[in-house]
Specification:
With 192 residues, the chain is mainly alpha-helical. The chain has 10 helices and 2 strands, in the order αααααααββααα. It has helices spanning 5-14, 19-41, 48-57, 62-68, 72-82, 86-93, 109-118, 128-140, 144-165, 175-181, and strands at residues 120-121, 124-125. A two-stranded antiparallel ribbon has the order 1-2. It is globular and about 40 Å long. It starts with a helix and ends in an 11-residue tail after the last helix.
């Protein structure tokens, strides 16, 4: 099942997603929705519903992870499976690091959400370089192996960016302006 926006917001509440994480997820969903829609316009079959739901749910395991120290993407994947959201479980499970992708092959919802997440720092769209700087400071510490793994992951993301934007009708540096104009019906204050 692919949850709609309201169902995603309900699950965020159920799993006590912190407000700052929810705000981040809403912006990631906006960016991902914009990219998916533009890929569709370019004739590439990407499910906007899967991308939007996957982006909204990508950090569903983050709050739990802050307490347990476990991998939040795997916690999120398990939450999706427990809630019969099989169609987005792998998107959530691979939003930190893609396990299987093909830079010369077809486009996937996982790539879109993976990339969108890397372009959003807190609740602002930023460049990949700015996001990398933040991730290295926040999670790299003085651990050379961890910093190398983070840099390698961002090299993958740069390759995904190149692939995505080879088919989009706007440049990557325009994403912040365009995402600000995007409206996918997301709001923090929903009607009950």
């Amino acid at each position: 099942m692919i949850p709609n926006i309201e169902e995603c917001l309900d699950l965020m509440d159920k799993y006590q997603m912190l407000e700052n994480i929810k705000a981040h997820s809403l912006v990631v969903a906006t960016v991902a929705h914009l990219i998916a829609g533009s890929l569709n316009d370019a004739g590439i079959a990407i499910s906007i519903e899967k991308v939007t739901a996957g982006a909204l749910m990508h950090d569903i395991g983050k709050t739990s992870s802050l307490e347990s120290g476990l991998d939040h993407s795997e916690i999120g994947r398990q939450i999706c499976l427990e809630n019969s959201l099989d169609e987005i479980a792998d998107i959530v499970g691979e939003h930190v690091k893609l396990k299987e992708y093909h830079l010369d092959g077809g486009f996937s919802e996982k790539e879109v959400v993976f990339y969108a997440d890397k372009r959003v720092n807190h609740n602002r769209v930023v460049s990949l370089d700015d996001r990398l700087t933040y991730i290295l400071e926040r999670y790299g510490g003085n651990n050379k192996d961890r910093c190398r793994a983070i840099r390698d992951n961002f090299e993958t993301c740069k390759a995904v960016e190149k692939k995505l934007f080879s088919r989009l009708n706007f440049r990557a540096d325009r994403l912040e302006d365009l995402a600000g104009d995007e409206d996918i019906g997301l709001c923090l204050n929903r009607q009950e």
